[in-house]
Amino acid sequence: MSEFSFNEYISKRESGALGGIEEDDRYAFGPDLKMLRGFKNFRPLELVVASLVRGQKHLIQHKYIGRSLKVGPKQLPRIHAIAKECAETLGITMPALYLTNSPVMNAFTFGTQDDSFIVVHSQLVDHFSDDELRFVIGHEMGHIQNKHVVYLTTMMLLSQLPAILRPLQPVVTAALRTWSRRAELTCDRAGMLCCRDLEVAERTFVKMASGSTKHYEDIDVEAYMDQLEESQKGVGRFTEVFDSHPLLPKRVAALRVFAESAYYRKAMGLGDDGLDMKTVDERTTEIVKIAGARR
What we know:
It contains 14 helices and 4 strands. The chain has helices at 7-14, 30-40, 43-67, 77-90, 122-127, 130-145, 149-157, 169-195, 198-210, 221-225, 227-231, 248-258, 262-267, 277-288, and strands spanning 69-70, 96-100, 107-111, 116-121. It has one domain (7-288). A 4-stranded mixed β-sheet has the order 1-2-4-3, sandwiched between helices. The protein is globular, with a radius of gyration of 19 Å. 36% of the residues are buried.
């Protein structure tokens, strides 16, 4: 991305100007930015965040230091090189990265905005190509770039609320899950900016959905996307309000819209034409809304 820089985007984020980024000068999903602004004005949530993260971050990181492999130039250099490339693409400082033994395809980011770390599960590394890892690690670094980390950490630790704050748990949980579904769309975009290929991002989601190591070549992405319409039928669709992530087919469909944006096309060196970000967000909102539910 030699002709495309995140420097202006980063400087505006660092200055706290969440709402000061012009529509076509940001890739973040607009409703994500809107909720982050609201969180900063919601004092009870800020109290919960401070209470949980202050005491738990170092304990959790120590657990991974002792039980996982810390990725670096000499240890797991392939993964380190991919992560470094993603950090450079997004214009952030390289965070600590751990590889942990797990049969589940997953990765997550934890900590504070100033001291974050990423954990990648071994199953994911074993079955993903380098480009697919770029999408996943870029996604996680998108959380760091977009100031999500403290709220993600809070969501993971809500069960450990001190007694005095427990009455706030249902309200805070609902708010954070709603925000998280929006934040994931922002970070899917970050991942695609790092892997630079919509098909790679789509394949990553399908692999996560199947979990099978034997049948990847037999999976048809378009057949998988047909499940999106099916998922919008029946009362079961309302359970999505309790999820922290949108349904995977919705995330694929949302990335297809982002791939048509002028922002993405410019970042990929494909020209300045394409959809403006306001239109991209409007279409994305229609894709990810929970059918029949109130917005």
